[in-house]
Amino acid sequence: MRSLLLLDLEGKDFTRLEKNLYFLLAAFFITLYLPRMPVVNNLFIGLIFIHCWRMSTRAEKKEALRKRRALIFIFLFFGLQIVSALVSSNRHEAVTMLAMRSPLLLFPLSIGLIQIRKELRFRILLTYSLTVVLAAAVCLVTAWFQFKRSGDITYLYDDGLTAAIDRQSIYFSLIVDFALFAFTYLLFKRSFAIEHPGGVYLCIAFLLVIQFMLASRIAIIGLYSGLLVIALAWMIKNRKLVRGLTLILALVGVFFLLVHWFPKTMDKFKEMTYTAYQFDARPIENRVDKRRVNPEQWNGMNIRLAVWKCAGELVDHNWVMGIPLGDKQDRLMDVYRAKHFDFALTTRRNMHSTYLDVLANLGVVGLILFLLGFLFLPAVACYKDNDALGGFILISFAIALSTETYIDKSVGCILLGFFISFVLSTKKPV
Prior knowledge:
Elements: H1 9-12, H2 16-31, H3 38-54, H4 58-67, H5 69-86, H6 91-100, H7 103-110, H8 118-150, H9 158-161, H10 169-189, H11 197-214, H12 217-238, H13 241-261, H14 263-270, H15 300-318, H16 328-338, H17 342-346, H18 354-385, H19 388-400, H20 410-425
């Protein structure tokens, strides 16, 4: 607790500006999980933005912008978004989308332009991870009481589990992945921020269970692949074959135990075998519940395949210049209407891929700017700095962005804007 409040010896060495940033970020993490209170979260984003501008001089900001080339491409990408909004026919939609995507600019302009030293980074990561544990505990307790009262198993899985914090499970799954990677990173670094390692191991075990109950295929695949890579790298680097193999076997054992305890989660993976679809079909969408998965249902896999087919038609005709930001969704609805894809039309499905969305909106130039700014150049910086945690965050995003349009959701923009900026802020301008 003393380390969380910066009352230990190391914490007292932080400057006043560093301490203020730390507590602002802690409050920001908490507000991410306040249901239906976006104004409070936006308030802290604004306060963080103002505070970060006080943490470095104008000359230091210019130097960071010159050396952190990823930021230049991020700003160019957002500039194209503004131009695209201005030329939109549907101005209301354009302004709404631009406001939603503002964290993609605000965080790089603030956190992306400062330097966060290693000791402060450890504290921020620990605080972030513990707030995730707290949010997950609230979700589980609330869902359990709902389940006991109603007998409906859906409260313990997928979006039912995250109803208490009003977040879709697909986004909270990525949040949990980052917390698990952060805990693991802090343990490997033997950070002084961790006062009770045993408690951290319990938090990891708890989040592993929560992650399985969230039933996100992409997040589960990314998590266990990442943990496997960490175990292999540790085994090779330290030349401890027996311990490394034991760690890998333990990881495999945990996975199969979770499969046994939560068989409904595996139904989400079974959906991947049911890829056939008809645009004019009207079956209900499958959710994790008492019904078994069957090929007659819309599921997470065949919905995406159908949506990607429609989005591909837009891209084919607009891959050079793109479609104005405010008109993109209307044009996608036109394709759904032409194909009699009523299920997607009534639910106003987006493109279910950030890459497709950017390509359809801004063309190939916009996609290149997006990839360079948010993924490729930050990855190069992580490689040069030997930053494994930053690398795992970027790989997780690269995978997650392929099946969800993160920039079409407020929480998606916040996560992408914050974490990419945070990864860059811990690097010396090079």
